[in-house]
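Weekly structure sync, notes
Attendees: PL (lead), two postdocs, one rotation student
Agenda item 3: pending single-chain targets
PL asked that the sequence for the first pending target be pasted directly into the notes so everyone works from the same version. It is reproduced below exactly as submitted, 401 residues in total.
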Amino acid sequence: MGVDIITNTGASPDSLTPVRIRHEVRALESALHVKNRSCAPVFVVGSPRSGTTLLYDILLSAGGFVLYLGESNVFNLLAPRFGDLAIRENRAKMLEVWLASSLFRVSGLERRQVEDKILNDCRNAGDFLRSVMDEMAQQQGAQRWAGNAPEEILHLRQIKQTIPDALVIHMIRDGRDVSLSLSQKRYIKPFPWKDRETPEGAALYWEWMVRKGRAAAEWLGKDYIEIRFEDVVSDPRSVLHALSGFLEQELDYDVVLKNAVGAVAKPNTSFRGSASTEFNPVARWKQQFTPEQLGQVEGLIGSTLSELGYELATEGREEVSALNRTWSRLVYRQFFEMKLQWKKNRLAHAIRHPLTAKEIDDMVLVDEAAAARIRSSVEPAREYTEGRSNLERMAQFGGKS
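Predicted structure, written out during the meeting:
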């Protein structure tokens, strides 16, 4: 980790109260003395629809990780809506909303387990997430935890500043498949005058997200790794081998299948080598894009696809003029950047209505039913030896999701 990353707290000098300074120093000193990479928190990030949930569930299925069946959404959704969390009133409001949401319900925790720690010790989004996940790790007997919220790829600097020992896995998928899926799912909120985003606009969103992650790789160094969705589908054992070295934790393919959690447990999961079966999540764009759409999409993001090693199917750059390509990239990137900065803007925080638990539940992905099954299966295991992992307990009591 570079010195500039360690010393950059992301706050102006005027806002650094003595309490906050002491807190930042403690966090940074702890990062300098991290010796056990095998216990470090892991963040699975990437463009939405790139397979981040699948990879996250693979980690959970491998054992040793906290079983949290949902996207944490602390950095990208919760924290930006409550202002400076060094202010007790702000973190108290955020805690109340979180406690009323599905994000808390799937945790298996009780209010008393986190309330005092968050109100008294929390100073930022990283503190909040670590307080929750560390408590879950202790309760479940897990050695580490992971976070799964794709758009937190836009907040990697803040994540690393507030959770200095964090490791980042950037999941990358063919932008043509991602743009197809994003446009069909209406994931992206388009310009006000558009009802839904086009594959072309979704492709530019994918490119923007991917480049954000790859730019962070320059300063994340050895704490960053890229994984391709297509490799997870075609050669999962090799992917797990690479991740085992990166995480300094053994990830066994057979164990993952045996203890399948979440997306890994689904019959049509991409992880079970389904590239050779009727369900194939790879290169779906070949069947579903029209020739005109394919030419437009490759004309806009072809250079990034090629840079990542994806072979182009058309002479896409001839389908889109240089002027159109430059203009589209400029407009869309500025639009995406504006929305990102607006999230962090103090004026926006002042004029927006307070975030509610219902809004959170409407936006986030959680599996409350599976979480309830796991909790009911793990509860009896508390009488067992503390050395047993949470995944072993879940398997013993039939808690597979």
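Discussion points:
- The longest strand covers residues 167-172.
- The CA atoms of residues 233 and 271 lie 5 Å apart.
Action: rotation student to compare against the earlier draft before next sync.
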